[in-house]
Amino acid sequence: MSRPADQASDDDRVFKALASPVRRRMLDALKESTHTTGSLCALLPELDRTTVLQHLRVLEAADLVTGRKIGRERHLSLAPLPIKRIHDRWISDYARAAVELLDRLDRPDPSDDA
User: Fold this and answer.
1) How far is it, in rounded angstroms, from Cα 75 to Cα 71?
2) CA 15, CA 99: separation in Å to the nearest integer?
């Protein structure tokens, strides 16, 4: 089944964003609650603010994070739909195939009865 090039490109951006352990940590934090840019920087003390902002840009380009300005602060939230799209497209089918394979391996072979 063919998929539109723009959707494949969207998936590529999501996979690129998820490839980084730092960005996965950021998403884990945002899964728990919204964060300001400053509080996200505080969760990653080993990184300077510029590096955190670069990682945020990658997450935003993949539509994994949304931000809205409230006063002087920028509040960031997880946008889970791209991850669900990846799950639906890739993970669920592979998991189903693995379960079916394990089920076949657990069944006795009828030729063993002979």
Assistant:
1) 10
2) 24
